[in-house]
Amino acid sequence: MTRTSIGKDIQVAFKNKGDNEIKKVTLKAYDDNYETLKKTRVKLTKTDAPVEGKVLSNGYGYVKMRYFLPSATMTHPEKVFENLLKEFEEKQIKGLIIDVRDNPGGDDDLVAAMAGYLVKEPKFYEYVSYYNHRTGTFEINPNETRTIKPLTPSYDGKLAVLINQRTGSSGEGLPLAVKGLPHARIVGFTSTNGSFGVVSSPIVVEMPEGYVLQMPDGRSLNQEKMIQGDSNDKGLGGAIPDIKIPLNEQTFEEKYVRGQDVELNYAIEALQNMKE
């Protein structure tokens, strides 16, 4: 995807698959009102269920977590997840795949509650510190210290979590919570978005020419009280895949030409290769 100043000409060289001839075309940049960018975004509606699941034909359980908030039709997503795990237990699934690709986040309390079904022992989730506009420093709010508490039914079998670059904010909390567990693998082409911030009263900075920059005023901290999840000055951060899928000609064709779910296939392979 090429973007440049409106009206500017750009020459692009390309080669079609199976063709050795290099072709060149000239493209003129125009203002499409961000339409091409909008087409790449996942659009959630109020009727989209926060949580859905099923048993795949190969015997693995699959749960799609679209966002971490109640909806008009699902007031308690954590209970739906609990019931799915009970169903999976009865059907003796071979492993569990949780899909948080394109999950924009939501409520950290809900994330911590749902993660409780995936741990055997209590696990620290986060401290939250907020920017004090009067003192210019960050201060921990003790009322927002969260710990993941084990819940039943407890799932401790093989686990794969699917992520992508659009897994953002609290959506990054679940892969961060299970990362490092011996039976869990994070799978994706990229890390998550690296935007695990908290907003109560945004930090606002006025820029030249009328632009306004708004930043989250809250930070999620790990047990050592270090910022977790947010990206650094190099854009590195978020939940990092244990299994990073290569984006090459083969996987590009499989995903975008043939329409295969490459990440899901890699997750299934990871579960198959995992020791009991």
TrEMBL record:
Q: Which GO terms describe its molecular function?
A: endopeptidase activity; serine-type peptidase activity
Record GO biological process:
proteolysis; signal transduction
Signal sequence region:
none
GO cellular-component term (any): outer membrane-bounded periplasmic space
- Tail specific protease domain: residues covered: 37-246
Matching SMART domains, A to Z?
TSPc
Pfam families according to UniProt:
Peptidase_S41
Quote the PANTHER family the UniProt record gives. Answer: CARBOXY-TERMINAL PROCESSING PROTEASE CTPA (PTHR32060:SF30), TAIL-SPECIFIC PROTEASE (PTHR32060)
Name recorded for this polypeptide: Tail specific protease domain-containing protein
What is the organism of origin for this protein? Paenibacillus silvestris
Organism classification: Bacteria, Bacillati, Bacillota, Bacilli, Bacillales
